[in-house]
Design a protein that fits this description.
Four Helix Bundle (Hemerythrin (Met), subunit A); globular; 9 helices; Nonspecific Lipid-transfer Protein, Chain A; 49% helix; 2 domains; alpha+beta
């Protein structure tokens, strides 16, 4: 198993990434227009997107402050309120509480391995990162994805988010045989194997990102692309971004996996 629920970076680095992504989200909003449609979230305008991220930041701030969750009151911006100013306050509140809280402080989190505050620095960095990507697409930019951050994002999907989806919906990815995810710009690769279940489909087992050749060779299909391409594909953003990874081998098995709901 990859088993990296807190990631490979330290909390302070994740918090700097969160700040960078949040600032980029605000820059996209300022470039606008705020009514621009978000191609990767077709029911949302750019304003809706920023509002959503701010709500998530507020929710996580309450979780870290209290250690409890997830049933904290929702916060909504008032009609006519400057959404940029509203988001700045939500972002700063989150960064403050993360910086002021010992990373090993117990908190509610996603699953049994994610029960300390350090989990939330990683989760919120990637939350803001994927939605920064959405916002930049909405204003016609071609956003770049840092390969190291993308590798960590792939691992987060496999280690945390698939299980989160299964917990919330009961759905598990469609996977009938092992599939390899392989970076073309980095050495990392992962093997997803069908989970063992008696009565119901189980979550795939994820091996990697340091994968021996003999284990990688058991895959019936390989999905290959840059680390950024793989991360975006797992989040369902690759088609809109024009960066669909290459598939070798049994394409039907690989496409069924990628078409599954892997993230919330």
């Amino acid at each position: 198993m990859t088993n990296l629920p807190h990631g490979v970076l330290d909390p302070a680095t994740y918090q700097r990434l969160l700040r960078t992504h949040g600032d980029a989200l605000l820059d996209a909003l300022a470039t606008g227009p705020s009514t621009a449609s978000v191609p990767t979230c077709p029911d949302w305008t750019l304003r809706d997107l920023v509002h959503h991220v701010g709500q998530v930041h507020h929710w996580v701030t309450a979780i870290v402050r209290t250690g409890t969750g997830p049933n904290h009151p929702e916060l909504r911006a008032e009609d006519g309120q400057d959404i940029g100013e509203w988001y700045v306050e939500r972002l700063q509140n989150l960064l403050d509480v993360l910086a002021q809280t010992d990373p090993d402080t117990p908190t509610w989190g996603f699953g049994p391995c994610c029960k300390t505050a350090r989990f939330w620095s990683r989760r919120q960095a990637h939350e803001a990162g994927i939605h920064r990507f959405d916002a930049e697409l909405a204003i016609g930019r071609s956003p770049l994805v840092d390969p190291i951050v993308a590798v960590d994002g792939v691992s987060e999907v496999l280690d945390v988010m698939m299980a989160r989806v299964a917990e919330r919906t009961g759905a598990t990815p469609s996977l009938s045989a092992p599939v390899l995810l392989e970076c073309t710009d980095r050495p990392e690769r992962w093997l997803l194997c069908p989970g063992a279940g008696d009565d119901a489909p189980a979550l795939p087992e994820a091996l990697g990102p340091d994968l021996p050749d003999d284990v990688a060779a058991t895959a019936v299909a390989a999905v290959r692309g840059s680390a950024g391409d793989l991360w975006l594909a797992l989040w369902g953003r690759d088609v809109a971004a024009g960066c669909t990874p290459m598939i070798d081998g049994d394409a039907e098995v690989a496409r069924a996996l990628l078409a599954s709901r892997l993230v919330p």
